[in-house]
Amino acid sequence: MSGILEEANYFRMIMEAAPPIRWGRMRPFKITFKVGSPVCITTPWINFDGLLAHLILLDSLGPDFYITPKKLNLTPYLPKNRRMLPLKRTGQLYHASVSMFTPSSLRVTQIYKRFEERWAHNLDKKKIYQGTGTFRSFMMKQPYVPCKEVTYYVHGDMEIIRELIEKYLVGLGNDVRIGFGIIRDAVFEETPADWSLVANGVAMRPIPVEFCEEYEDAAYLAWKAPYWAPQNVALCVPPGARCTLRDDVAWK
Fold it and tell me: In 3-state terms, what secondary structure has residue 141?
């Protein structure tokens, strides 16, 4: 346990040393990502608040981001008031939609991994075993969306979010490193209303049922970052289901 705390405190100190984010004007807006290749996904959608948390952490930690523990939730250990997400929030629910793919259809492809002989001169080994171990070859199925655009609706500080996206985000979804989800352009447009939670009576993100007056469907879903953490799963209205927010949520 002491080792975990030491590791968490290391990243906390780095974040405390990072300059605080100075928020400007909060406003509702839409982000349209123009992508040059299909978006590879591991879940039906990509949550914008989780994506933004990723960018904030990258901006805060710099190169140390790449050594963060992958199975430790750092959220309880990080400083609360220096590097917060520049998003409107009701309770712990951020006003940020999930991804909307255009066109929206799901396909599956095969990804192959094999040893590249051209890099063998850098290895000390004389024999490479491709049937087992680090250099084993494998084939796996990967779902993807052959979309041209990915849209998000957000209520937050558009300038800070634009800066983080332009500085750090090169692609969306999984396996960007092999060419999936490459971003060609990102267009920011103000919207006349906040459509980040509900638009035209339809949920735009997972919304815990306690935030809703009425809803037509519910499922156990992760609703806040980190989305892989089991403790962040609750009974929620899924994106695309009809619902009505409680008055104190809708107008807060």
Answer: strand
Radius of gyration of the CA atoms of the chain, in A: 20
Is the CA virtual torsion 195, 168, 225, 106 positive or negative?
positive
What six digits make up the tokens of 70? 């992958």
Going by C-alpha positions, the residue among 237, 207, 177, 195 that lies closest to residue 100 is 195
Rounded to whole angstroms, what are the CA distances from 186 to 99, 133, 182? Answer: 14, 41, 11
**203 close to 197: Cβ distance less than 8 angstroms:** yes
The pLDDT tens digits of the residues spanning 205-243 come to 999 999 999 999 999 999 999 999 899 999 999 999 999
Q: How many CB atoms lie within 10 A of CB 156?
A: 26
Do the beta carbons of residue 52 and residue 168 sit within 8 Å? no
Q: What is the pTM of this model?
A: 0.88
